[in-house]
Write a structure and sequence with these properties.
single chain, alpha+beta, Translation Initiation Factor IF3
């Protein structure tokens, strides 16, 4: 279970990524963040974001009209 959550539903690119970046900046290393959003392009965006920043994308899923990402902050 994630220690932190971020509701980015209704936000379009690039806002879910920007809000995630801000949330991660306030977290400790190894903390986890659950992000929920509705942007259809968010899967590729979050995969690229985690690859570029070194954070770990633990899981991602599409459920109904929502996309859920679990991210672990890098060391």
């Amino acid at each position: 279970m994630a220690q932190h959550t971020l509701d980015a539903t209704g936000l379009n690119c690039p806002m879910p990524i920007l809000k995630t970046k801000q949330a991660l900046a306030k977290m400790e290393a190894k903390d986890t963040l659950k992000v929920t959003c509705t942007d259809k392009g968010s899967t590729k965006d979050f995969i690229a974001f985690c690859h570029q920043t070194g954070n770990t994308l633990i899981s991602h899923e599409a459920k109904d009209d929502q996309y859920i990402f679990n991210i672990e902050k890098r060391d």
